[in-house]
Amino acid sequence: MVPDAGAEDEEKWLAEGIAGLQHNAFYMHRSLDSNNLRDALKFSAQMLSELRTSRLSPHKYYELYMRAFDELRKLEMFFREETKRGSFSVIDLYELVQHAGNILPRLYLLCTVGSVYIKSKEAPAKDVLKDLVEMCRGIQHPVRGLFLRSYLSQISRDKLPDIGSEYEGDADTVVDAVEFVLQNFTEMNKLWVRMQHQGPIREKEKREKERSELRDLVGKNLHVLSQLEGVDLDMYKETVLPRILEQVVNCKDDIAQHYLMDCIIQVFPDEYHLQTLETLLSAFPQLQPTVDIKTVLSQLMDRLSNYAASSAEVLPEFLQVEAFAKLSSAIGKVIEAQVDMPIVGAITLYVSLLTFTLRVHPDRLDYVDQVLGACVKKLSGKAKLEDSKATKQIVALLSAPLEKYNDIVTALKLSNYPRVMDHLDNGTNKVMAVVIIQSIMKNSTCISTADKVEALFELIKGLIKDMDGTPDDELDEEDFKEEQNSVARLIHMLYNDDPEEMLKIICTVRKHILLGGPKRLPFTVPPLVFSSLKLVRRLQGQDGDVIGEEVPATPKKIFQILHQTIEALSLVPSPELALRLYLQCAEAANDCDLEPVAYEFFTQAFILYEEEVADSKAQVTAIHLIIGTLQRMNIFGVENRDTLTHKATGYSAKLLKKPDQCRAVYACSHLFWVDDQDGIKDGERVLLCLKRALRIANAAQQMANVTRGSSGSVTLFIEILNKYLYFFEKGNPQITSSVIQGLIELINTEMQSDNTTSDPSADAFFASTLRYIQFQKQKGGAMGEKYEPIKIN
Predict the structure, then answer these.
(1) Longest C-alpha distance within the chain, in Å?
(2) Could you tell me which PANTHER family the record lists for this protein (predicted)?
(3) CB 3.0-4.6 Å disulfide test: which of 75, 138, 488, 516 passes with 527?
């Protein structure tokens, strides 16, 4: 090995070596020019003696070797030309160079002359090659020996007695070519491995780096083998592969084993790998425990799957050789043999096997499930994964079927899929659940049966309920919202045309989301409610009584489920959301002509309003929602309607702020006058609401006067005027032109008062209202006549 020298020393030694080489090369050329063979051989041997150095690292030795190689090519050309001319016999020359004093120069010269000897065809190529490969055993120094054998390989690669080659001899000639390359490969590998065991332990890393620089010298032999025409499948199966594998296994060196297995996979055709799969795979469990088998095996499976994808015609071959069974068995044996293999290594192998299976046998779900099952077996008995790399590989394993089939329904058929997910930590489990939901959204997959929904929700349970040991306060708020919104979107993807099955789906979803806890329900209950209401609309008109559990899907049955579901939401508490959902259900019950159900939903909404909605802004929003929904109801009898409208007007007048009271009260006027319904046109009560609103507006003015010293804006009066005009046009006999006239004059008076605060928006609003009145007057016809008595100046 190279002594531990500094970079400067090494540069100096290299420079000295190059100088000595060039000096002798100069005299060698002079001798060649004067046809002085003896001097040429003397100076060439002295030149090549520079390669005997042990001081240089492989990298620097290579620089020196390449300079010598260039000179040897010139020497070879000289030998070839002179032997052609007949200046001397190549056989004599072959004998002559063997008199060189030192073995290394002697063997370089012998290889150079050997090349000319083969080219002259004066002796069979196989004999010369056999002689050369045997002679090279004389050099056992690892670096010098590797470069010498590399030179032999270089000069002989175009002179091998291969089929179709000009050096082809008798029938068995290709066997000799293969034997030569294999022998050279074996010896080179031994030299390469020996490098590892020379020198002190502290330089182990340095040696490994040097070895990695030299590995291609060894690997080139396998490349040469793969290029031989005579190496057909039979020869590869019977001779080449067993001999290479024997050397790989026996060398017991992890660097060599990893590199050479990789070489075998890369240089030989995929078809050969497929037909010799059993032989190749049998070597893997025999490799050293420190060899990174997962990478090599993964590359093999990638190559085979690419080969399968290249043509449909080769697929039967995969079935014929039972590729999946062999690969699966080999991976099992490797994992068993390498007890210290980290969990990430095992999972990486299963990911590669799954990728292979999905590409080669996409129709065999049993194979896919078998791979997942093997992974579960490996993970069983272990705690949830903490290793981020292993977790990443499991996500890749679980994502592969989704990407291949673009259909979660197929993945749901895999019994081991959820069992693999169970081994993920809670955070990654959620990530995987989001990936599953995104796959469903991207492919618009419709999950159409309760069983599939059950299986799906079991898969994404990490998003639906708190997993053990995950405190709520550790969750990022934004992430949590995004996760729950994705669940909400998913609920809308669950659909079946059959109402019975759809009801089962709704019940399944409800069962799962009610376990979600108070933080999740506000996100997940609304989509379930609207999905149920969609079913109600489809079933409109069916109002069969509900008896027992197993009943047909009817609106009544669904409304019962909805009532219980929203009730769970109101306990969260999330009263404003629950109130909105109760009102949505009331409206749906109205469309189904289910008066008692609609009344019950309104009752629940009012109870929530009374007991839970405390914020004044929330109260304003809620009362307007109640009024708006109630106004659209058309199934209530007189008594029920009166009760609900009385409640609504009562709550409107009890709002905290006077302007809010005023607006809610005048909104209630619409409850007593509905255009498209007969019988609800109570002009007197409309007028009562509007007068009450005016009184509240007046009180608001006075309050502003007391607190601020000015009356405040007249906006409320203008808003009430617009309500008067609305009911005036609708034909309410209680709203007369004189009443409107009086209100206009009141507003004018207020606006001109010294106490009133100037408000440009109110001025513009009033001016716009007056323009509207003027427009109606000018329009003519019946409406023009109605508006005629109103004076606006």
Answers:
(1) 139
(2) VACUOLAR PROTEIN SORTING-ASSOCIATED PROTEIN 35, VACUOLAR SORTING PROTEIN 35
(3) 488
- Three-state SS annotation for 481-549: HHHHHHHHHHHCCECCCCHHHHHHHHHHHHHHHCCCCCCCHHHHHHHHHHHHHHHHHHCCCCCCCCCCC
Amino acid in position 178: V
Secondary structure class of 759 (helix, strand, coil) = coil
- Look up residue 163 and give its DSSP letter: T
713-759: per-residue pLDDT in tens? 789 999 999 999 999 999 999 999 999 999 999 999 888 877 777 78
Please identify which residue in the block is written with the tokens 């046998």. Answer: 361
Question: For residues 365 and 410, is the Cβ–Cβ distance under 8 A?
Answer: yes
Alpha helices in 380-443 (DSSP H): 388-405, 408-412, 417-421, 426-442
| Composition of the chain by helix, strand, coil, percent to 5 | 75, 0, 25
- Measured CA to CA, the distance from residue 419 to residue 454 in angstroms comes to 15
Q: What percent of the chain has pLDDT over 90?
A: 49
In the structure, how many helices (H) and strands (E) does the chain have?
A: 39, 0
Is 222 within 8 Å of 254 (Cβ atoms)? no
**Contacts of 546 by beta carbon, 8 Å cutoff, 6+ apart:** 554, 556, 557, 560
pTM score, whole prediction: 0.74
Q: In which residue are the tokens 């008199």 written?
A: 99
Do you find a cis peptide bond into 573, omega within 30 degrees of 0?
yes
Euclidean distance between the first and final Cα of the chain, in Å?
A: 114
Q: Are 76 and 108 in contact (CB under 8 A)?
A: no
Query: Could you give the CA distance from residue 39 to residue 763 in angstroms, rounded to a whole number?
Result: 119
> Which positions ≥6 away from 239 have C-beta within 8 Å?
175, 178
